[in-house]
Every structure is written in C-alpha cells, then in structure tokens.
Design brief:
The protein is mainly alpha-helical. The protein has two domains: 56 residues, no CATH class; 50 residues, no CATH class. 77% of the residues lie in helices and 0% in strands. The protein has four helices and no strands. α1 packs antiparallel against α2 and α3 runs antiparallel to α4.
Length: 107
C-alpha cells in the first residue's frame, strides 16, 4: 500500500467516524450546537480537499484529462449548483458535460 492509498484510507475513515459521531449525537444535540457545526465543517473541508487535489494534482487516469477541462468542469458544476439552488445531480451532469466538451476541443 502506497502512502497516498494510506492517506486516502485514513481520511475516509476519519470522515466516516465524524459522520457516525454526528448521527450518534444528533438526537441529543440541537442542529445549531457547536459540535454539529464543527463536524459539518470538517466533513466539507475534507471533501473540498479531494476536489482541489483532483483538479490541481490528479493521479491515475484523471491525470490524462487536460487541466483546462478539469477546471472547466469544476467551474461549470459550481455555477450550475449555485444557479439551480443546490440541485446536485444536475450540477454534476453539467460539470461533467463541460469537462467532456473542453477535453474534446483541447484534446
């Protein structure tokens, strides 16, 4: 197991642990409790770090996708998410479509 695989596994375990802790205390704490806010912030930061790494320094097959295509997919996906008020699946499809189009143009 490489260092990157270990880091990915540990991060996934940490995220799952935070999700489990959030579920365990969800009945006892109100939604605006500081612990719930902290757990949500850490989960979102973890996801954001994976997105940034996938765009800036991808590995594996994703490394074969040109940088402008990855950036275009991210920008269009985020824009669609904001414009459509949080419709995640539609934003994902829009971002993927932009990535495919720009990849075809850039080559």
């Amino acid at each position: 197991m490489s260092g990157a695989d270990l880091a990915l596994g540990l991060t996934a375990l940490a995220m799952l642990g935070l999700r489990a802790a959030g579920l365990a205390v969800a009945g006892a704490l109100r939604p605006d409790h500081p612990f719930i806010a902290w757990a949500a912030a850490v989960s979102q930061a973890t996801l954001a770090s994976f997105v940034v790494l996938a765009v800036v320094a991808p590995g594996g097959v994703l490394a074969t996708v040109p940088g402008p295509a990855r950036v275009a997919g991210l920008v269009v996906g985020l824009g669609a998410y904001a414009a459509l008020r949080g419709r995640l699946l539609v934003a994902l499809v829009a971002g993927l479509g932009a990535l495919v189009v720009v990849r075809a143009v850039v080559g």
